[in-house]
Amino acid sequence: MTRRNVSRFLVAWLCVTWGAVLLRVDSFPLTWAPMYSAWEPHELTSNRVVEDAVYMRGVEVTRRDGSTGYLGASELNIARNHMYRIYYQRAFGQAAVGYEHASQSLGAFNRWIRGLEEGEERHDPDTGFRLLQSLNKTFDLEPDDPGFIVRVQASFDVLYRRFDDLSKVTRDHAEADVRWDERWRERF
Amino acid sequence: MSGAWNRFWFTGFSVESLALLRICFGIGLLFFHVTQFYTFFLLDPSGASFYFLDPVWYFELLGLERQIPVLAYAGFALLELATLGMILGYRTRLSIGLQILLIFYLQGARDSVTGDEHHRYLVPIQMLFFLLLSACGRARSLDARRSPQLAAAGRATPEWQASWPIKAMQVYCASFYFWSVLAKLRVTGWVWFTDPRRIQDLLLSRSLIWGATDSGEPVFNPLPYWLMHQETLCRIIGFSTFVMEAGFPLILFMPSPRARLLFLLGVAFFHVSNTVLAYVGFGLFPIVFFIFFDLAAVRRSLAGYFRRIRSRSS
In this structure, are residues B181 and B245 in contact, taking their beta carbons and an 8 Å threshold? Predict the structure, then answer.
């Protein structure tokens, strides 16, 4: 390449990388680097009580034939951090943080290119459907199979603290209950 | 304008600098890959092939739907071999190209399981891309040893050709940090840096990631939990994050290598602290900081230093 062509290439490369920043693209290998950027000031902070043995044992599942059981890291053959996210986040409808980053505090231009109205900033990735699809397809289960998973449950304790008195802790309980919707068959 | 552009992009480095960067960065990558993909080795090769819950965009495009442990094992082994190939300069371009493809695959397989995309390979992948385009295999490589023409081409490589890939890597790395500050300002605003509760929130949630006692204290690593109670320190951490991220591009214009080293040691401390306190997996990220030094000059001054020591002792 000649020096002139290298300059042209560099200008194009800068346009692509900075263009991704303007458009809030966060898809490898481009990013607008939103790690830990989303936060809203609040007085009350909540934290889940993580229980290693509980989330590794997995989510409680109910099958179409009425039988129940657990699906954990070893059955799904996934790493601990993924099981953590399935149990504590996806089962509770919390999608990957990238969705929140991509949709929170959008400027007018970014709302326009995403086809969102003023105030409409959330993109729902349909986490419940995806979770049931993933669990069933991992074991090649079809919607009419007796072993098809139709319900997923998880629960954990939540600790609340106020920032003005961090020593005072109150405890609550959160439960997730994701059920199969027969209208999802076509998409499955 | 054109003069400033040319001075910035096309001066400062030799093919020797590029080759040493290839070697040093490659050695760092050997370990970095392990920290990023070790979880694949915890999988049962004959176990279930997990159906991705939220595949990354290129897996969706290619129709890759499952995590296949055996492929991940093979991919990782090949990745380390390709990295070794890059370090030794054996079929250098092929080794670098293979690394890029394998990182795409392994990162996709890792991040598609639950859809959380990680950002740790963004700078390394850009660096590999520019090494791929560069003449880094023309010196200090098995390729150059085997081919006298390539070695001669290496010796004849002009400064501008060796400089622009390293400058592009520097610009990307500096932009990466700067984008982080822009993202925080765009999404949350100044309050991210000025309100100590932001840091307290992060430290508290991360301190409880391994579980909590009945009184709500962490069962492991009390340090982040202790720090969370120090409001002034949290305020300082928030502010220094802003200074570091917003000020990072200044490194592109720091002429003194010592000043750059000092600044980067501070950034490395930031990453290691994040790993210890908040389990953010950027602990080995500082391997990319080699780009901010002319390694040929570093090698010359180290060689001179050892020569002086030898001559003094003899």
Answer: yes
| pLDDT, mean of residues B21-43 | 96
| Model confidence pLDDT, tens digit, residues B46-81 | 999 999 999 999 999 999 999 999 999 999 999 999
What is the rounded average pLDDT of the residues B171-188?
95
Q: Please report, as a single letter, which amino acid is at residue B270.
A: F
Contact predicate A134/B52, CB 8 Å = yes
| Assigned token pair, B255 | 């002429």
Q: Which positions 148-177 of A are in contact with B (Cβ < 8 Å)?
A: 159, 161, 163, 166, 169, 171
CB half-sphere exposure, A61, CA atoms < 13 A: 23
Distance (Å, rounded) from C-alpha A160 to C-alpha B222?
18
User: Residues 6 or more apart from B261 whose CB is under 8 A from it?
Assistant: B293
Residues B284 and B32 sit within 8 Å (Cβ to Cβ): yes
Q: Which two tokens stand for residue B204?
A: 């508290």
Q: For residue B141, what is the DSSP state?
A: S
Give the residues across from B286 on adjacent strands: none
Is the CB of residue B190 less than 8 Å from the CB of residue B181? no
Six-digit token pair at B308? Answer: 């002086």
Q: Is some CB atom of chain A closer than 8 A to the CB atom of B172? A: yes
Q: The complex's ipTM?
A: 0.94
CB-CB: which of B107, B164, B195 is closest to A41? Answer: B195
Nearest to A130 among B54, B125, B201 (CB): B54
pLDDT tens digits, B225-271: 999 999 999 999 999 999 999 999 999 999 999 999 999 999 999 99
What residues of B are in contact with residue A50 (Cβ under 8 Å)?
208-212
Nearest-CA neighbor of B122 among B135, B103, B98, B101? B103
Beta-carbon contacts of B175 under 8 Å, excluding residues fewer than 6 positions away, are: A17, A18, B249
Contact, B115 vs A95, CB < 8 A? yes
Question: Within 10 Å of residue B260's Cβ, how many Cβ atoms?
Answer: 17
Peptide bond into A29 cis (omega under 30): yes
CB nearest B201 (choices: A39, A78, A97): A39
Q: What is the DSSP letter of A39?
A: -
pLDDT tens column, A55-80: 999 999 999 999 999 999 999 999 99
**pLDDT at residue B19 in the model:** 97
Say yes or no for a CB contact (<8 Å) between B52 and A52. Answer: no
Nearest Cα residue in chain B from A136:
B51
Which of A29, A39, A134 faces B52 most closely, judged by CB atoms? A134
Mark yes or no for CB contact A45/B176 under 8 Å.
no
Amino acid at position B157, single letter = T
Give the per-residue pLDDT at A122.
66
SS3 A179: strand
